[in-house]
Known about the structure:
Elements: H1 2-19, H2 41-54, H3 56-59, H4 68-72, H5 83-86, H6 91-100, H7 115-127
Amino acid sequence: MLKPFLFASAVVLFGITASSALAPTPQDAASGQKNPVKATEKSQARAKEIYAVDCALCHGDNGNGKTDLAQAMQVTLGDWTDPKTLANRPDAELFSAIRNGKGKMPSEAEGRAKDVEVWNLIHYIRAMAKQEPAATN
């Protein structure tokens, strides 16, 4: 009973984000940019909110990628609780994947999250492997 509801919710979410206009961002993976923002307690609280609404449905609350929806969509998602999963993925690459989408993953349009929020989301995701808060202040 829960699986059809989750799948329907994801379809609606994907439809909304896919229909949003995609504007190119200057902070793209091509720039090779490192994460320009410093994580704070407040920024990580906001990143957690964004993650819960826009990411957890597929990637899981803890980031392990083992969700009913991912299985139903027949996608294998990386386990962000494993430090090796993101070790060789630069922040700019993650920013580009989040902002522009990748494969079946919809984009995180600027209307849903500002660039600084996406950069903070990357801190939040990387902290999942550390089993500790991402905030440094």
